[in-house]
Amino acid sequence: AQSVTQLDSQVPVFEEAPVELRCNYSSSVSVYLFWYVQYPNQGLQLLLKYLSGSTLVKGINGFEAEFNKSQTSFQLRKPSVLISDTDEYFCAVSDLGSARQLTFGSGTQLTVLP
Amino acid sequence: DAMVIQNPRYQVTQFGKPVTLSCSQTLNHNVMYWYQQKSSQAPKLLFHYYDKDFNNEADTPDNFQSRRPNTSFCFLDIRSPGLGDAAMYLCATRSGGAADTQYFGPGTRLTVL
Q: Which residues pair with B66 in a beta bridge?
C-alpha cells in the first residue's frame, strides 16, 4: 500500500515569486509519481509525471518537479508564478501493477496574490 | 475534442432515489476508473475496469455499483443515495500500456436532498 502526504494545505505566494509545493510518499514497492492540477468544479489535469530516468521532470505551464528517492519526496516548483496558477494541486503515486490505481495526497491550495 | 465525457455535469437526487452517472471516452482505452471526491478532500478510488474485468476497492460501499457495457462507456449506479454520498464523481481512463497515465473527465457533482 502507498500513502502520500502533502504537508501544506494552503500556500499563498505573490505574483512572479517562486513557489515550491511539498509532497512526500510512502511505499514498500517502486512507484510512479504524478502532480495533477484541479480547476474549480473540474476534473484533474496532469501537470507532470515521473516514471524513470532523470529525476528532474518538466511539465506544462512552466512547472517542474524533482524526485528524491532517498527522501521519498517529489516537490513541485515554479520559478515565477502567475495569478492564473491559483488552483488546487494534488500529488499522487501509483504502483507498477496492471491496475495502476492512483493514491492522492490531500491537496495544496495555491493562491497567487497580486 | 473532449476525450473523457461525463454526463450530467450536475445531478440532483433525493435521499434513497437511485441515480446513474455516465462516463464515455473517445480514447479507446482499456482501463476505466471511478473516483469519489468529497468537498476539500482528495479523490478516492471506488472501482475500476480493466477491459471487462471489474475490480472493487475493499472499502467501497455496497450501495455503489458499476457497469461497463462496452469499451467506450462506463456507468456508476448508486442504489440508495444517502446525504453522505454527495460528492464530485470523477471518471478516468488509461490505455493500459507500460508508461501511460490516467486522463480525467470533468466530473459530475452529485447533490442529495
A: B76
- Residue A52 one-letter amino acid: S
Across the interface, whether the CB atoms of A102 and B43 are under 8 A apart is answered yes
Q: How far apart are CA B99 and CA A32, in angstroms?
A: 9
Q: Rounded to an integer, what distance in angstroms lies between the CA atom of residue B84 and that of residue B64?
A: 13
Task: Name which of A1, A62, A69 is nearest A37 in CA terms.
Answer: A62
Nearest-neighbour CA in chain B from A57: distance (Å): 15
B-chain residues within 8 Å CB-CB of A99? 31, 48, 50, 55
Amino acid found at A106: S
Cβ count near B91 (within 10 Å):
27
pLDDT tens column, B15-38: 999 999 999 999 899 999 999 999
Which of A25, A46, A71, A44 has the alpha carbon at shortest distance from B107? A44
The amino acid at A26: S
